[in-house]
Amino acid sequence: MAQAVERLEISVNTPAGQVTTPVEVPVGFVPVTEIVPLLRRMGEQALALEQRRAEATGQRISCRMGCAACCRMLVPISAPEAFALRDKILALPDAQQRTRLDRVSAARARLDQAGLLSRLRDIAETDRQLSDEDMEQTNRDYYALRLPCPFLDNEICSIYEDRPAACRELLVTSPAELCQDIARNPVRPVSVPVRMSTVLAMLWADLTGGPVRLIPLPLALEWAERHHTERERTWKGSMLLEKALEKVGRFLNYCKM
Ligand code: SF4
């Protein structure tokens, strides 16, 4: 039986303008994955406002389907998204699921060969709060491999509707060819009003008492598998929404400072 829901409309002021969206809040208890689609949607709406601002100044977005140069960077994914991704992969028909899992294994083997796998596992599991500076060298070393994301098929994302928030946040206005070497070329990204992967990671930290954890995407499925009992925990829908919006507010305030 479908859960009873309360229908609301929420508005958030971002640097790009106000985002307003209808939301159905479950009256009962739900897992944290329930909040993921709403936050991703709000993030996309905020980014669309930012995109319009860029276009109003004569800039054009160069990102197009089939251009996946940025799918060679290390994508950080929050725990709620890792659980949602595992649910998605487990719901695929057997053959598709096998293909995905094989690609993930192949990516892990490549990372192991390059001496990066254990470093990424430490990042996924540490209880220490990592800073952007802590991640800098690992991000560089990962990008140097030019390892295609295991969810990339013929330069098209195979989980497009379910792709992580971080993947939705990278739009550029510089010529597409510059993205072939993001580390060296003067790539111009559209500024991101609110990073929902971080917001979701802050929410998970609050719910579980751990650090604001961002998991390297190629390890997201194994991380979610190892932590699957946490996936079963539930919280009141209204409480999850309240906490999530508070994290959005904290993120926006922090960025103003
Ligand atoms: S999940 Fe999709 S969009 Fe994100 S890096 Fe992988 S292939 Fe690219």
Largest sheet: 2 strands, antiparallel
| Computed structural class | alpha+beta
With strands numbered from the N-terminus, the spatial order across the biggest sheet is 1-2
Q: Helix and strand succession?
A: EEEHEHHHHEEHHEHHEH
First-residue to last-residue Cα separation: 46 Å
SS elements, strand count: 8
Globally, the shape reads globular
Hetero groups: iron/sulfur cluster
Mean of all residue-level pLDDT scores: 95
Q: Please give the radius of gyration in angstroms.
A: 18 Å
Q: Count structural domains.
A: 1
What is the strand content?
A: 5-15%
Number of helices: 10
Share in helix: 40-55%
- Uncertain segments: none
Report on the structure:
- The chain has one domain (5-256).
- Helices cover 48% and strands 12% of the residues.
- The protein has 10 helices and 8 strands.
- The strands form 4 sheets. The chain has a two-stranded antiparallel ribbon with strand order 1-2.
- Helix 7 (196-208) crosses helix 10.
- The mean pLDDT is 95.
- Residues 68, 71, 75, 149, 151-152, 157, 159, 163-164, 167 line the site of iron/sulfur cluster.
Set out the fold topology.
Elements: E1 5-14, E2 17-26, E3 29-30, H1 36-56, E4 76-77, H2 79-90, H3 94-113, H4 117-125, H5 132-145, E5 152-153, E6 156-157, H6 165-168, H7 196-208, E7 215-216, H8 220-226, H9 228-231, E8 235-236, H10 237-256
Antiparallel strand pairs: 1-2, 3-8, 4-7, 5-6
Helix pairs in contact: 1-7, 2-8, 7-10
The structure holds iron/sulfur cluster.
